[in-house]
Amino acid sequence: MKLLRTALVAIAAGFIFQQVGMFLPWLLGPMLALLLLRQFTEMEFYWPRILRTIGLILLGVMIGASFTRESVLLMWVDLPYMLFMTVSVIIAALLFGLLFSKMANESLQTSLLGSMPGGLSQMVLISEEVKNANVTVVSVMQTFRIFLVVTIVPLLTTFLVGREATSATTQANDFSFSPPAFLAAIILGILIYLFMNKFSFPAKELLAPVLVMAIVQSFTGSTLIEMPPLLTILAQLLVGAHLGLQMEKLRENMSVRLALAIVVNNVLLIAFTVFIAYILAALLPEYLFLDFFLSAAPGGMAEMGITALAAGADVALITSFHLFRLFFILLLAAPAVAYVLKKLDAKTGN
User: Fold this and answer.
1) Which tens digits make up the pLDDT trace of 105-117?
2) Rounded to 5, what percent of the chain is helix, strand, coil?
């Protein structure tokens, strides 16, 4: 009953948002409807993890389909820009975290981990290992950022010039089904997923198909699979419903002061990504400002991938930037920040 209610609300919200002409209706509609109903009513909802997993896999395949042999080779050319953008965004996020600490009267440990754009699950896990970090506040900060970025960034893209919305997924060679390549992709996908699962990678359901599609299509030189529009809608709905229900304790843990500090923190970070995107677009006129803006935006790869697909941005480029930032944060930035904060805990004797 709870699952049926959740599905009906998600479908109805997506349909209404589509009718009024909202951007990303099947993502934002279910997300906002379930978020509000969860916070302000006694209604109970249920969305099994398997549905979220299916949505991420579908989205991963759609994003991965945008990779061609040429776009994969261009990633090496873009590496300096990826490094510049990633380091700039991380430094800005940490500086805004210092401001947040003053505004919300939270510990430095809580503020920095909550401000780091490294993903909800990863930052919460790290905060559990840092004594002076408030895990609840870190969780609320990361969760509320998802909400703000997923609502603000797509709306901002409606004012930016993109390509035709379908060109990002049709820029590869003409689709022709190849059973050997398809079988190789499935086997490789399972191996990559098991490897990521062993090392607790976040969003592995999304990352595995993206990497598989990029690898196989760059080797074969052709598009591996063609996704019908109905599956695009289904992927948005499944992920949107999950995001809406993920913010379960938002109202209980949110004070006016904390909410204001989080809004200021994230608006400043989004504004900074606009600045970085403007610099790179001015230096590299062959790229669109939209591409760099979505590449720098402090949202997850799933949400920015959906936005890129709908806005007509270069999905492969944006995904490459987000992949680079994800691995940079997971392997370098987050462990370094956690190490410094633990040393700070030891010095203060807590």
Assistant:
1) 888 888 888 888 8
2) 75, 0, 25
Return the structure tokens found at 144.
Answer: 């509320």
**Would you place residue 70 in the very low, low, confident or very high pLDDT band (cuts 50, 70, 90)?**
confident
Long-range contacts of 90-99, Cβ-Cβ distance < 8 Å, separation of 24 or more: 90/116, 90/117, 90/328, 90/329, 90/333, 92/268, 92/269, 92/272, 93/117, 93/269, 93/298, 94/337, 96/265, 96/268, 96/269, 96/272, 97/265, 99/264, 99/265, 99/268
- The token pair at 212 is 């598989």
pTM as predicted: 0.78
The answer to whether the CB of 295 falls within 8 A of the CB of 85 is yes
Q: How far apart are the first and last CA of the chain?
A: 48
- Under 8 Å between Cβ of 266 and 145: yes
Question: Would you say 172 and 217 are in contact if contact means Cβ atoms under 8 Å apart?
Answer: yes
Per the structure block, which two tokens stand in for 340?
């410094």
